[in-house]
Design a protein that fits this description.
By secondary structure, the protein is mainly α. The protein has a three-stranded antiparallel beta sheet with strand order 1-3-2, covered by helices on one side. Helix 8 packs across helix 9, helix 8 packs antiparallel against helix 11 and helix 9 packs parallel to helix 11. The model has no long low-confidence stretch (mean pLDDT 87).
């Protein structure tokens, strides 16, 4: 008869506990035996099954595979530089909210339409994304920037990362300025743009592109919608920056993936979806502002 090597899995004084372990192993497709040795019940299994049993005994990892993949990515050189710049500006804000440095980062400080920009201060169309007005504002944005930014820099490259930051910042900042005026800051418009970009990339080529878990994406969408309520805390949210950032990210992804060439109908569907988001967001903000957008002062 062939000698089958058995190993001890565990032992108990109570036979019922030994049988519970045996049933658990059986449910997982592993044969086991119970032997009474002196005053204890020993659960035995084949030596070849021991590694599987050890794996079953380990605590289950509750982190989704998407987050595991994201956490394994390097932070990204440019993503780190961006985060450091935001941190430096936030420290300046904490030290002196009226600092001349902050004054140079707002989109404009004059009544005329982007006067400083047209006088050569071109950075102002981008720089409001570095300004944050509180700990929650700063840490929430940096938390998402860390993860969304590292996906883009590692999977799509530094050039796409930098281009996205510049394009999304310019469009979302300009849209917010024309809606409520120059007193705003934050990178959330860019964040929603990065989200929109990664979303379309994932939908179009699901096996090729990395994205955040579905429940986190839903959470971001809910946050996007709740911000438009304008109630209490949400009264001071830069909603047009969010909307135009999201829309710009979606459109950027359409051209980046050349969806027009590969599937015209799908590209058109994504584009029309982006257009609907823009129109609805503009209408909602228009009535929230009592039909009095800031850009009217230039007319």
């Amino acid at each position: 008869m062939e000698d089958i090597s058995k190993k001890v899995v565990d032992h108990f004084r109570d036979e019922s506990m030994a049988k519970e372990v045996q049933n658990f192993l059986k449910d997982n497709g592993i044969n086991s035996w119970i032997e009474l040795r002196e005053d204890s019940y020993f659960v035995l299994a084949l030596e070849e099954d021991i590694p599987r049993i050890i794996e079953l005994q380990r605590p289950k990892n509750t982190i989704s595979k998407e987050w595991m993949a994201i956490r394994s990515l390097p932070y990204g050189k440019y993503n780190l530089i961006f985060s450091i710049l935001c941190a430096i500006v936030f420290i300046i804000y904490l030290a002196d909210p009226n600092s001349f440095i902050l004054d140079k980062l707002f989109i404009t400080r004059r009544v005329g339409f982007l006067e400083e920009f047209f006088l050569g201060q071109y950075w102002r169309i981008i720089s409001p994304i570095f300004i944050h007005f509180g700990f929650m504002h700063f840490f929430f944005n940096m938390m998402w920037m860390k993860d969304l930014g590292k996906i883009i820099e590692n999977h799509h490259g530094p050039k796409i990362y930098i281009t996205l930051i510049v394009v999304l910042a310019a469009i979302s900042n300009l849209g917010q300025y024309l809606t409520i005026g120059p007193n705003f800051g934050g990178v959330s418009g860019v964040l929603f743009g990065l989200l929109g970009f990664l979303w379309i990339c994932k939908v179009y080529e699901p096996d090729k592109n990395l994205f955040i878990p579905k429940h986190d994406f839903i959470l971001m969408v809910i946050w996007f919608l709740v911000c438009f309520s304008g109630v209490g805390f949400f009264k001071h949210i830069a909603n047009m920056a969010h909307a135009l950032g999201l829309v710009s990210g979606i459109i950027f992804a359409i051209f980046y993936n050349k969806i027009w060439e590969k599937d015209f109908k799908k590209g058109l569907m994504y584009f029309l979806g982006a257009l609907v988001i823009t129109i609805l967001s503009t209408i909602i903000e228009y009535y929230k502002m009592n039909q009095n957008f800031y850009f009217k002062i230039f007319l």
